[in-house]
Queue: 2 jobs
Job 1
Amino acid sequence: MKYRKLGRTGLKVSEISLGSWLTYGNTVEKETAIRTIDQAYELGINFFDTANVYARGEAEKVVGEALRKYPRESYVLATKVFWPMGDGPNDRGLSRKHVYEQANASLKRLGLDYVDIYYCHRHDPETPIDETLRTIEDLVRQGKVLYVGVSEWTAAQIVEALRVADRYLLDRIVVNQPCYNMFNRYIEPEIIPLSQREGISQVVFSPLAQGVLTGKYKVGEKLPEGSRASNPKLSSIIQRYMDEELLRKVEKLNGIAQELGISMAQLAIAWVLRQENVASAIVGASRPEQIVENAKASGIELSDDVLAKIEEILA
């Protein structure tokens, strides 16, 4: 496993990280989830991602239980705040009240004294940025949070947050968590150049486009049993990628992977990691063998010729 620095910090995270969205505490049994997390740890993955809203706190409980057996200094753990955690008017967003209460609730569910990274899961137009950043600064000073992050913020929103942090001498954002894969490249024109200038890393989710870039979905063929697309609870999330044109591109990309002697999933993850500004790619795994396969993408370097062939297919 290879490691990269997170933004302008001294923190090093594994190129492959394990996420818990849609899986742990939800569609995957707890015992299987814990075995998968254990497998990831054994492979050298030191970066684990969760959120309070994942299965309404259940994912945090599973991840916390699985990691508790390991030395706290041996792994990096991230969680998030923003989405509704109740029906009340203050049970959502990035207000001081919600952020403070949810940070403490997350720590209780995780069974930990602190989290390494605390993400603002989305931008909150109803709360001043200085209110949110001051609250997280308080959590940093209390030793409950080490680094500040955001997820799916626009370049303009990140710039505003940096301006406010500098004005009031608050902890700066050092990591952004966007969606990024071969079929979703919106961060390339503005967010990556901005982040490179400001010392912010990308920790990307959905590098496999919800599983489409594994190559398991074929044009005209029945959906594989147990797949995300065949699950009525999850199929709506993957629909944007279940397009015949995209699936035919995956077939061509798979040909490149076969020439290189790697899997389609490994090619897709290696392509994401070609970006120096990407510190880690978050993968989801419902079984230990899946994380073993995905972890092999760490360290794969794609030549300029291969990248040109991929670009031609994607174009």
Job 2
Amino acid sequence: MRPWRSRPEPEGRVERLLADLRIHVEDPRVLAAICEVPRERFVPADLQAEAWDNVALPIGSGQTISQPLVVERMCELLELRGHERVLDVGTGSGYHAAVLARLAAHVWSVELHPELSARAAETLAALGVANVTLLTGDGSRGHPAEAPYDAVNVAAAMQGIPPALPAQLAEGGRLVGPVNGGDQRLVLLRRGPGGVREERHERVRFVPLVPGDGAG
């Protein structure tokens, strides 16, 4: 699969970011995906100089493009190998969906705000990304029409995981997203023969998930 990044200017910044990320993330496929997706294409023009900094950035409509380290950790926890069908809740800029698209077979990405979804569609089309389907609506309900999914990525903070999302996981499927419970942490769910098992991981900070919301 060819890289989508077409301009050489950010190369030095990409390498500096990857040097930081390698301390925390071991999956070489995830590191390659972060390198290959041109993050500067997913941020407003006045913030492009900061696109390869390891920070979240505003993208409008009260939403943000997630910190690269957090995107990378979420992708690593999903353990994608290339054949998976992925549900992405919270399209936002489309950046997280684009990274997932480098790691899986197809991504269905749901966004509440039509203006963000439309902007993400333009960016993904300009980059030639063909394995992402964008949808607008209530991300907390998932997208049952294409279920079950091998992985579900939730890029907005949940007070509790909406029951519709784990219900749309295939056997062996994984769900990752931030959950508020005193402090906001990444939570990983795994669906196995005995039901759904939960793991709690590091602290994070995301904008909240409201019925029909997201950011990525």
